[in-house]
Batch of 2 targets.
Target 1
Amino acid sequence: MRHDYRMSEMDLGGGAAPVLRGRFLYNEPMKKYVSWRAGGAAQRAYIPADLEDLGWLVRSVPAHEDIHLVGLGSNLLVRDGGVRGTVIMTSGALGELSLQGDGTVRAEAGVACAKIARFSVQQGLQGGEFLAGIPGTVGGALAMNAGCHGSETWQFVTAVETIDRAGERRIRPPQDFSVAYRKVAGPSGEWFVAGHFRFRPGQAGDGKGVIKQLLAKRGASQPTQLPNAGSVFKNPAGDFAARLVEASGLKGVSGLSNDLRELLAREGEDGRARLAVELFCYRVRKYVGAYLAVLEGADALLFAGGVGEHLPSIRSRICGPLAWCGLRLDATRNEAARGEAPCSIGAPGAPVQAFVIPSDEERIIAWDTARCLSGRPG
Ligand SMILES: Cc1cc2nc3c(=O)[nH]c(=O)nc-3n(C[C@H](O)[C@H](O)[C@H](O)COP(=O)(O)OP(=O)(O)OC[C@H]3O[C@@H](n4cnc5c(N)ncnc54)[C@H](O)[C@@H]3O)c2cc1C
């Protein structure tokens, strides 16, 4: 990849600009910085040394180049084609956090929300505990009006500090912004570099228990160590996304059970169970068909690892529409195979044969869980 400019070139362009003290990264994979752990590369990324350094950087980026600010990447989906322009990473960079003389907490854009929650509790302040549950930075929380457990970021904002492309910094009151549910609009061409928050006075350490509870609840329901999209739904006005998903009957596709045996038993009387079974068969068929096409055929298909080895009807629903690629089942042998012993279920002479290989599902699940927790690739 060709780099359009280097740090030294920028400095020349900036005339009297001092040497930038931050770090440039070129063609940097954004998947390292977003909770989805997916997406293309940033043409250029920059980790500023501090606010002043950030000012010099934004001033040096040519006007036609895009600038994007990224915090902890917990609300960002980066396209596979990557990001043009300069991506500025605030997390671990703009990290000053302090209690001001007027009792407000000032936090720079890269400070993790959880850190403010803990800091405010240590300072004997109450109300900021909810921030412990948001896996983002101050900049991201200000941009998104992040919130949970009945509280939202902007409820506590007394002022924000911003920077524009000319590197000019301003302190703005909340009145300069229109704030709604997960939506903040303000003066264009400015980014947040710090927030000032006023929490209620309380006793030092009071909120510790609340934070612990919040984190335990999150830990039980959200595997933040794993690639994670968080809650992709936005609550519509006057309602809750979770309630609507549940009401649609599509929660976990069926909302009934994850056990195919149970879904099969209920699909006659319940459309949601039928839909879930159909989707399951369709997905497996799609993958099998794609593999057969890419491999230009195969010797055999094995039903194992919890995918249909106990269920003749699932196997025939998966394989039936794949006869065109040479995969045909022997109806009698398929019906007899219940996953108790390895057996062949392919039709005699079929170019792609089929077998049932019973497997120890508990061991497979335990192995997968251990692999996920250790972060090892599959
Ligand atoms: C497991 C999980 C749980 C979540 N739970 C919640 C929740 O309970 N409540 C909730 O509200 N959200 C939740 N989220 C979403 C996310 O954590 C929040 O939106 C958070 O505020 C994003 O912060 P960030 O630093 O990661 O921002 P990023 O994802 O890095 O950025 C988000 C947006 O903000 C912009 N931005 C970032 N920094 C700045 C800045 N300094 N100035 C201007 N714009 C900036 C980015 O350009 C981008 O448009 C969750 C996400 C995950 C993955």
Note: Residues 178 and 314 are 53 Å apart (CA to CA).
Target 2
Amino acid sequence: MIKTPAILSLLSLGLLCATGAHAGEGSSCCATMASGKSVATSMTMAADKDASTCPAKPTMKDASSCASMAAGKDITIPASEIIPDTILTREAQSQLSPDAVLSILMDGNKEYIADNLTVRNNTQRVRDAALGQYPMAVVLSCLDSRVPVEDVFHRGIGDLFVARVAGNIVNEDILGSMEFACKVSGSKLIVVLGHEHCGAIRSAIQGVELGNITALLSKIQPAVQEAKSSFKGDASASNPKFVQTVCDDNVLLAVQQIRDQSPILKQMEDDGEIKIVGGIYHLESGQVELLD
Ligand SMILES: [Zn+2]
């Protein structure tokens, strides 16, 4: 039931296999990597041969070569190896406290860091979610492709609202989305998630001006000025420590903006109905570090 973040695309293959779609030559190897365990197959001899070539610890290179072999044979991942999660219901969502949701997400992040992402019964979940959604949290993330939010917290379909914009900045539309998530749809937690080595943060420090990017980066300037007011040393985009300081300040300012600019969310937080937190995603470890 284990795969690595590096072979996320293989998870899809595993799920296709699980739902009866056709995989192929070498697919037993791929499914084994996707699920972390052996798979049943109608082509036992071929499976044994393929499995013998399957590395114990798959890499991106292994995954791509395996995926390229897929074509033509049926394989099955035992149901016992697929998380039989059900879509959150209104009742289940209402019983979650903000702290419980935060614990679920942070525990999920530990599973992500430990390469313990698991095959989910996604096609069933897609059908189950068709008539409604009751996500437990809303995450405001940067646009960055290296931050796969659902995977980072090991959550699936129907679990999270995810708002993404370069630099994870807050504006009226983001606030409206958060108010919908929490006040209308019952989410219990807001996470503003910045990340290491953020290009938007670096560009804001550099004062980049280009088309609509100029207006976007202007919303990060308060964090740049905040960081400059206290940072000792080279306050430029070429200093990773300064970039990270701006990144942290940008997250903390976003959390404060949510409270200041949304009376609805502020009231919900004061009443203990929701929690608003900021965090940083570390690109090299996959860890989410909560900011105070
Ligand atoms: Zn970014």
Note: Residues 1-70 have pLDDT under 50 and may be disordered.
